[in-house]
Write a structure and sequence with these properties.
Oligomer: single chain
Strand content: 15-25%
Helix content: 25-40%
Strand order of the largest sheet: 6-7-8-3-9-10
Structural class: alpha/beta
Distance between the termini: 28 Å
Number of strands: 10
Largest sheet: 6 strands, mixed
Radius of gyration: 20 Å
């Protein structure tokens, strides 16, 4: 059984159909990419899955249970975390505090415990601190715990956003263009980190990415959206050669005139 499924998922904004009858199945421990030209509906799909938008039709199932229409905090508590195309950090808090905030749902003590600083409070805080530091070490930010988030280099800010998502202890991680704005070296580092998330932590990855080289390099399966509809799905190689996909990116006639190699150039997804 797939870890995540969308079944005839539909979302409308007035007269605009942003998603139409989208069927998607993400297998556990897979790296599954969603691509498509600008306006294809990719971020709308993520927003429906993570609870920021309520679907107008269809269903979303996670680990066999329907999550369609649940609040974002309830969806996160079930094991789904996400990052954003535009980095959203607490810029004026430390790197460590950004991760500790993400850990809040898993830290259990009462208000009275916090006021009296009881043994239960001290144990919970110490365990949260230990776990947060371990996560920062995993993503390559060890030694930067006291830095202000706003003072980190761009690539490290991307890593910190992933670290904060990991603090939720997710089974499924939604990554929205994690290499956007990165130079080639930073992109290679991010590819390695995404693979380690799957291989070492067993996290399933659903990925939106604008860089086709990244998509073709790390994805087990690729789903292609265009104007809110799914037009193709398959292995990276099969998708790269699909005439409908080439036409969606490059225009009518490109499928016969330019060939699949054009799709591996970086571009908007």
């Amino acid at each position: 059984m797939a870890l995540l499924e969308t079944i005839r998922l539909t979302k409308r904004f007035g007269g605009l159909v942003a998603l139409r009858d989208i069927d998607l199945a993400v297998q556990e421990r897979a790296i599954h990419s969603v691509i498509g030209p600008n306006g294809a509906g990719k971020t709308t799909l993520f927003n429906c899955i993570s609870g920021f938008l309520v679907p107008d039709g269809g269903d979303i199932r996670f680990a066999g249970n329907s999550i369609a229409g649940l609040r974002p905090d309830l969806i996160a508590a079930q094991g789904i975390a996400r990052t954003y195309q535009n980095i959203r950090l607490f810029r004026h808090l430390s790197v460590l505090d950004n991760v500790l905030i993400g850990m809040h749902p898993h830290v259990h003590y009462s208000l009275l415990d916090a006021i009296l600083r009881t043994p239960r409070y001290r144990r919970a805080e110490a365990e949260a601190d230990r776990e947060a530091r371990e996560i920062l070490h995993f993503v390559g930010l060890a030694g930067k715990e006291a830095f202000m988030a706003a003072n980190l280099p761009y690539g490290d800010q991307r890593r910190l956003e992933i670290a904060r998502a990991l603090a939720l202890r997710p089974r499924l991680l939604l990554l929205d263009e994690p290499t956007a704005g990165m130079n080639p070296a930073e992109t290679d580092d991010m590819i390695r980190l995404i693979r380690r998330l799957r291989d070492e932590r067993g996290i399933t990855i659903l990925l939106i990415e604008h860089d086709m080289k990244v998509v073709m390099n790390i994805s087990a399966l690729v789903t292609v959206l265009h104007f809110g509809e799914k037009i193709a799905e398959g292995t990276p190689e099969a998708v790269r050669r699909n005439p409908r996909v080439i036409e969606a990116y490059l225009g009518r006639g490109a499928a016969s005139g330019l060939g699949p190699s054009s799709l591996v150039q970086p571009g908007e997804a």
